[in-house]
Design brief:
single chain, 16 helices
Length: 318
């Protein structure tokens, strides 16, 4: 049993910024991997959203993800990657972990699964591209972690222009339904999750934070799972739907959240969120490779614009 204590290095915001400058490539590499997994989630995970009841899908995804991390805890401690326990944590960090579980697992996942069921994957990806601006606004006016600078605004505009250019056809011709409202709400909760996460990740570590948040999220979604069991139409399920659920659990809930925590350890929340602008484009590329979406000059131009946006969006206010 280990007692978690805050190290002096973790108390200084300036030292945290210095650490982010020393190895930003680690954060970018983790987020590129996370982006690739999420892109696959839009393509492969949609079948689960269409055939599973939203309550059952969200509850089952959360509980299975939590069980996976609960099983991994002994190995994480043995490898030295996670050296504390829930009972050893100070109350303030327990409260922060519960808050992360509410924001990122309970509300965000339920709203995401519901919205994806009633709208298109392209529309979902485009709405999620609003995340960087929401995170940036929270960082400037609420959390006071960001500085308003023209380079950051220009980067956001360029990235948004790339996303809109890539998805203009889908926006003009897709029947969105009311699911976009659920996705929009999910973006709000996800933006708060990204802003609240960094101090917890820096203190407990990415593996410990992800594991505990997933386990707490599983507890929160037990009632959701029970309600979903009663609502689910079992004849609608197929092997493809169960395979899609497996991708959501292992890929998006376990691996993608872990890579996100690694990214937040080395990059600011807004720079982390900006990678969401690559997800719609990556989704279209993957769909094109599978024959679901034709490649076009719009997609090539969109990729260039989004890349320029990522380059412009720097932490330095020069």
């Amino acid at each position: 049993m280990y007692l978690l204590r805050l190290r002096p290095a973790m108390r200084s915001p300036q030292l945290l910024k210095d650490k982010q400058r020393l190895a930003p490539w680690k954060g970018h590499l983790a987020l590129l991997g996370q982006t690739a997994i999420i892109c696959g989630g839009y393509v492969f995970g949609r079948k689960a959203a269409q055939h599973f009841d939203p309550f059952f899908l969200t509850g089952l995804r959360a509980v299975l993800s939590g069980l996976i991390y609960l099983t991994l805890l002994p190995f994480l401690r043995r490898w030295g990657a996670f050296t504390t326990s829930w009972t050893a944590l100070e109350p303030i960090w327990r409260q922060k972990l519960w808050r992360l579980a509410l924001l990122g697992i309970f509300f965000n996942q339920f709203l995401f699964n519901t919205g994806l069921r009633y709208t298109t994957a392209a529309t979902t990806a485009l709405i999620y591209a609003l995340t960087p601006s929401v995170v940036f606004g929270l960082g400037v006016w609420v959390f006071r972690r960001e500085r308003f600078h023209w380079r950051k605004v220009a980067g956001l505009i360029a990235a948004y222009a790339g996303v809109v250019l890539a998805l203009w056809h889908n926006l003009l011709h897709a029947a969105h339904g009311w699911g976009w409202l659920a996705i929009l709400a999910a973006v709000g909760f996800w933006a708060w999750y990204l802003q609240v996460s960094p101090p917890v990740v820096q203190t407990i570590g990415p593996l410990g934070t992800t594991a505990l948040v997933m386990i707490l999220g599983a507890f929160l979604h037990l009632p959701t799972l029970l309600l979903g069991l009663w609502r689910q139409e079992w004849e609608a399920l197929s092997v493809a739907a169960w395979t899609s659920l497996a991708y959501l659990v292992v890929g998006m809930s376990v691996v993608a959240y872990l890579l996100l925590s690694l990214g937040l350890r080395y990059l600011t929340p807004t720079r982390t969120a900006l990678y969401i602008n690559l997800q719609p484009i990556g989704t279209l590329i993957l769909a094109a490779a599978l024959g679901q979406e034709p490649l076009s000059w719009q997609l090539a131009s969109a990729t260039l614009l989004t890349t320029v946006g990522l380059f412009l969006f720097t932490d330095e206010g020069r």
